[in-house]
Amino acid sequence: MSAQHLENHPEWSGRLAFILASAGSAVGLGNIWKFPYIMGDNGGGAFVMIYLACLLIVATPILISEVMLGRRARSNPIIGMGKLADQAGVSRGWQVIGWMGVLTGFLILSFYSVVMGWALSYVEKAANGAFVGASPDTIKGLFDGLVGNPGSLLFWHTVAMVMTVAVVARGVRGGLELATRIMMPLLIVILVLLFGYNIGTPGFAPAMEFMFAPDFSRVTAETFLVALGHAFFTLSLGMGAIMVYGSYMPRGTSIVRAGIWIIVLDTGIALLAGMVIFPIVFSNGMSPEQGAGLIFQTLPLALGQMEWGYWLAIVLFVLVSIAAWTSAISLVEPAVSYLWERFGIRRLHSAIAVGLSTWSLGVLAALSFNLLGDLTLFGKNVFGLLEFTTANILLPAGGMLIALFAAWRMPRADSAEELGLTGWRYRLWWWLAAIVAPLGVALVFLNGLGVFG
Ligand code: PHE
Ligand code: NA
After folding, report:
1. How much distance in Å is there from the Cα of 164 to the middle of ligand 1?
2. Pick the CATH number of 3-448 from 1.10.287, 1.10.4160, 3.30.160, 1.20.1260
3. ipTM (interface predicted TM)
4. Tens digit of pLDDT for each residue in 131-161?
5. What parts of the sequence cross the membrane (predicted)?
6. Whose CA is nearest to atom 6 of ligand 1?
């Protein structure tokens, strides 16, 4: 590792830029595609409550810890954890956080890019007017037709991957910042608009009940695992993306305040997405348990019946695609910044190398909806397996290690200085990161293994 590379470590143009970029990473398919569909599969309100509890008690202190480690190390997660371990006088084994993160990002991107491809293909369908006045059966047919067709799935998966590599290759300032500035406000406006349209529909009241009146009879050990996993997934937490973005964060910016902003934005958009999707589900007598196709079978239906729906559908799927895009680039960033800082490999080359290997695994994920549908393990196909293990196991495990290192290994003076916290505020963070959050992850894991019956 030469000093020259580290001096080249880039920085955001300011505080807002950090929040925007991290929110760009956080807000993505997790909010608009995944949250509604896993909420639907897990019974609604009770799931939402467990998810919010995980967010508050477990994910928030870990998010603050991850940003803090990144900014302290001013480096990519692998080299950065090595530096922090040296400073703390502990084993470099903690670098496993960085290695695991790079692997997790690679695994997530492989299926994320497939779903981003779905969103892109829906831009095309919207532009062709495919949704205008379409019946539920027609809309369902469009989705089944897409996932049943290996050729078009692979085409859109490839487009998504090329888009991702192109931005990563351009670097932090040029590529990552710009996209979020425009996307985030627009996305919120459109969702609010759709929400307003929904208020008058017959499905609105049942939808609110479904989302906010918890029915704990349907809660299982897996519900906890999925809710916890989603708290990590939706915040891009536990795999180094937030660490790497934190490393580009200028000093003197409050980590806690920025972290809270990111969580509020991400959660707000997820809940809003739910409040847009479920009224459509109930107004049309559909089942909330549609699985991964949920938003692709509901949004077009409502949009197809609305005045201006043709244009709104185009704009909405463009925005979903952009939201996915700004998340996808953050999945590759830890690997790319490592390859640059460790070996001096140019962004263009490393982005292409990482993109190609991720693309290959993504091909298997895409084909698991059709040709490889019979290839299953524990009742899950390749796509389902990738989705389940990354979000529900690898991210919480990574997050737990991050919290343990930040609280138990890093000198307290360092963490206090970096966080800008003193007194009870510092102690609160410390207790949450040292004990509550790791314990929470451990309990959910043990529960998932059936230890508590
Ligand atoms: N947070 C992103 C989303 O909600 C997904 C993601 C996970 C991105 C992990 C980066 C790292 O869509
Ligand atoms: Na998210």
Report:
1. 14
2. 1.10.4160
3. 0.99
4. 999 999 999 999 999 999 999 999 999 999 9
5. 12-33, 45-64, 96-120, 153-172, 184-204, 224-246, 258-282, 308-332, 352-373, 385-408, 428-452
6. 236
Are 185 and 387 in contact, with CB atoms under 8 Å apart?
A: no
Asked if residue 126 lies in contact with residue 311, where contact means CB atoms within 8 angstroms, the answer is no
CB-based burial, 393-428: b 16+ in 10 Å, e otherwise: ebbbbbbbbbbbbbbebbeeeebbebbbbeeeeeee
- Cα 334 to ligand 1 centroid, rounded to whole Å: 13
Can you give the residue ranges of every domain in the chain? 3-448
Distance 188 CA to ligand 1 centre (A): 18
3-state helix, strand, coil in the chain (%, to 5): 80, 0, 20
Q: Please tell me if the CB atom of residue 270 comes closer than 6 angstroms to any atom of ligand 1.
A: no
Q: Using alpha carbons, list the distances in angstroms from residue 124 to 119, 306, 354.
A: 9, 19, 27
The secondary structure of 240-306 as a DSSP string is SHHHHHHHTSPTTS-HHHHHHHHHHHHHHHHHHHHHHHHHHHHHTT--S--GGGHHHHHHHHHHHHS
Q: How far apart are CA 100 and CA 278, in angstroms?
A: 36
Q: Is the pLDDT of residue 175 over 70?
A: no
Q: Does ligand 1 lie within 6 Å of residue 329's CB atom?
A: no
Residue 39 DSSP SS3: helix
The proportion of the chain whose per-residue pLDDT surpasses 70, expressed as a percent, equals: 96
How many angstroms separate the CA atoms of 64 and 78, rounded?
19
| Residue 95 Cβ contacting ligand 1 at under 6 Å | no
